[in-house]
Specification:
The longest helix has 23 residues, at 165-187. It is built from 16 helices and 18 strands. 32% of the residues lie in helices and 24% in strands. It has an 8-stranded mixed β-sheet with strand order 8-12-13-18-17-16-15-14, with helices on both faces. α1 (4-13) crosses α5 (94-102). It binds 4-amino-1,4-dioxobutan-2-aminium adenosine-5'-monophosphate and magnesium ion. Residues 204, 225, 227, 248, 250, 257-258, 261, 263, 265, 395-400, 439-441, 443, 445-446 line the site of 4-amino-1,4-dioxobutan-2-aminium adenosine-5'-monophosphate (4AD).
Length: 472
């Protein structure tokens, strides 16, 4: 039995051209027999393999469709996969056929059909349609079509662009990377300590702060890092980490920069610079291994990632000193001088020599943050490392041993012109049982971009914040 009023509305037009208010109240509407609807089990597309030969209901959105005039092919996606649903005019009856023909891209629907294995079908299974419930009709002006769009247009429609298979695959890899990070650290006894987003002390450098007024207390900053707080937590718990959004008012319009990005920051008591790098390389090797193991289809089939470039990513990673890096770069014609930080092109040049990420160690003091420990073997430099990913993805990790000497730390705070009074609590950590400790920050978006082989990191976060974008 079908609700005739609605059907005839559609039947006359042949397709849904507009959603008139009177129609809206009538959705969802079931086209098919009521008995069948109550009998069929609702399943995820990824679980169809277990239901071959059965009649099931899939709930999702219409990704694509074509019709020969006699047979309609609907490509339905539900977030777990895609499936082709097929209905022939002769079998489904006129009412349902009218609906199938009129469906617009991204209409939400429940489709009931019997499951068949079919190697040629996308996803490997097909549904022979026996019923369909149009839950939320879409409109023919759905902005994102199957053709190519410019990136500004796509970013403007990020809320819809996110539905595209490539974006879905990237989000899944990001999720796997996040879970792998947490598993790795949990298994090794790290405790997750969440650090504040609103902070009173400058964490990295004064140049890239987002400021906000904080009641009667003056200026607060959005956190550039959780590190300083987790140095305190490391003295309480030994091995800790924070993992959350961090903010940099960086005026860089590059493919590696966001103004809001997620950073993983482990902090370890009784760990020196060498120990710090060992944790970094085993973490990165583990993350890449997990993505290869659990996201292979997304990487290979959807993102067309050349995974042979990821397979060599196992520890140990090569280590070169900053001095060696500068020599290499100068020999290749770079204008870098000793004392300069490495630019993106310099990092790419260094990475070209290696099939896995490479550590560059012990940078000059002036190029790095105030909290890094002076190198006893060369006091012009600090005990730190950047980890440079292959294929031009640049620095994915910045890490260091922390300055644990009260006087040296205080003089670095003064040299950098930082407001001493804001660091009283941080200096306390050096007054009450100072201890050797190290940590690092891994940029989640850069890491995911590298693993996915995505050119610009803005595609690796659901709603990217960049210099010129805060919408949607
Ligand atoms: O090297 P950074 O600035 O290190 C810190 O913030 C330390 N406090 C971390 C620590 O030792 N706990 O940043 C760490 C990483 C970089 O290697 C990069 O991957 C990422 O964060 N990153 C950015 N990612 C996207 N957009 C930006 N604007 C980024 N700035 C840094
Ligand atoms: Mg850095």
């Amino acid at each position: 039995m079908t609700p005739s009023g609605v059907v005839s509305t559609f039947g006359a037009r042949g397709r849904i051209v507009a959603i008139v208010p009177a129609m809206l109240g009538r959705f969802p509407v079931w086209f098919g027999t009521p008995e069948l609807r109550s009998m069929s089990e609702t399943v995820y597309i990824s679980d169809l393999a277990a239901h071959v030969g059965e009649e099931v209901t899939v709930q999702g959105w219409l990704y694509n469709k074509r019709s020969s005039g006699k047979i309609a092919f609907l490509i339905v996606r539900d977030g777990t996969g895609i499936v082709q649903a097929v209905g022939s005019k002769g079998d489904v009856g006129d009412d349902l056929w009218g609906i199938l023909e009129g469906l617009e891209y991204e209409a939400s629907l429940r489709v009931t059909g019997s499951v068949r294995a079919d190697e040629r079908a996308p996803g490997g299974y097909e549904l022979s349609i026996v019923g369909l419930e149009l839950v939320g009709p879409s409109s023919e002006d759905y902005p994102i079509q199957l053709k190519e769009h410019g990136v500004d247009f796509l970013l403007e429609h990020r809320h819809l662009w996110l539905r595209a298979p490539r974006q879905v695959a990237i989000m899944r890899v990001r999720d796997e990377v996040t879970k792998a990070i947490r598993d790795f650290l949990y298994e090794r006894g790290f405790v997750n300590v969440d650090t504040p987003i609103l902070t009173g002390a400058i964490g990295e450098s004064a140049g890239t702060l987002f400021e906000t007024e904080y009641f009667d207390l003056g200026t607060a900053y959005l956190a550039q890092t959780g590190q300083l707080y987790n140095e305190a937590a490391a003295a309480a718990l030994g091995r800790v980490y924070c993992f959350g959004p961090t903010f940099r008012a960086e005026k860089s319009k590059t493919r590696r920069h966001l103004t809001e990005f997620w950073m993983l920051e482990p902090e370890m008591a009784w760990c020196d610079s060498e120990c710090n790098m060992e944790v970094q390389e085993s973490l990165v090797g583990y993350i890449v291994g997990r993505a290869l193991e659990r996201c292979r289809a997304d990487l290979v089939d959807v993102l067309e990632r050349d995974v042979s470039r990821l397979e060599p990513v196992v520890p140990p990673f090569p280590r070169i000193s900053y001095d060696q890096a500068v020599e290499k770069l100068q020999a290749r014609g770079s204008s870098i001088e000793w004392g300069d930080d490495l630019g993106a092109e310099d990092e790419t040049l260094i990475a070209e020599d290696h099939d896995r990420p490479v550590f560059i160690c012990n940078y000059p003091k002036g190029a790095k943050a105030f909290y890094m420990k002076e190198n006893p073997d060369d006091p012009r430099t600090v005990l730190c490392n950047d980890l440079i990913a292959p294929e031009g993805y640049g620095e994915i990790i910045g890490g260091s041993q922390r300055e644990d000497d009260y006087d040296r730390l205080l003089s670095r705070i003064r040299e950098e012109g930082l407001p001493e009074e804001a660091y009283g609590w941080y200096l306390d950590l050096r007054r009450f049982g100072t201890f050797p400790h190290s940590g690092f920050g891994l940029g989640l978006e850069r890491t995911v971009a590298w693993i996915c082989g995505v050119h610009h990191i803005r595609e690796t976060i659901a709603f990217p914040r960049t210099l010129n974008r805060i919408y949607p």
